[in-house]
Amino acid sequence: MPTYSNLKKVVYLSQAQYAALENPDPDAIYLTPDNFQCGVYVPLVDDAGNLSWSNNKGLPNPPTVNIMGLQGKPGEKGEGEFKAKRANRAKKAKTEAEWLNGIR
Fold first, then answer.
1. How does DSSP assign the chain, residue by residue?
2. Mean pLDDT, contiguous 10-residue spans, the chain (104 residues)
3. Alpha carbons 85 and 45: distance in angstroms, whole number
4. 3-state helix/strand/coil string of 90-101
5. pTM of the model
6. φ, ψ at 42 (rounded to 5°)
7. Which of 55, 8, 14 is nearest to 28 (CA)?
């Protein structure tokens, strides 16, 4: 676990600035365009659940892993609550339409 006592200062410099540095701080980490590679990793999950990675710097990618998991047990059959709600909505819509048309 990192602690505040072992954190280092990170300094971003151009290559020319780094070359001209006379008294580098021993507790600092110096990053230049030549020694700093920042890649953007992009995940991809296929239909089979395989998670793979690509990046824009040609860096090594993590290994592909399957994240699908095992098929679960089928759920219990419902009591038709959805059908009842849909029927009530249809009845209400018909009643509102009749009211708007002056039939009611």
1. ---GGG--EEEE--HHHHHT-SS--TTEEEE-TTT---PPEEEEE-TT-EEEEEESS-PPPPPPEE---PPPPPPPPP-SHHHHHHHHHHHHHHHHHHHHTT--
2. 60 84 83 71 91 87 91 79 72 69 60
3. 36
4. HHHHHHHHHHHC
5. 0.38
6. -120, 120
7. 8
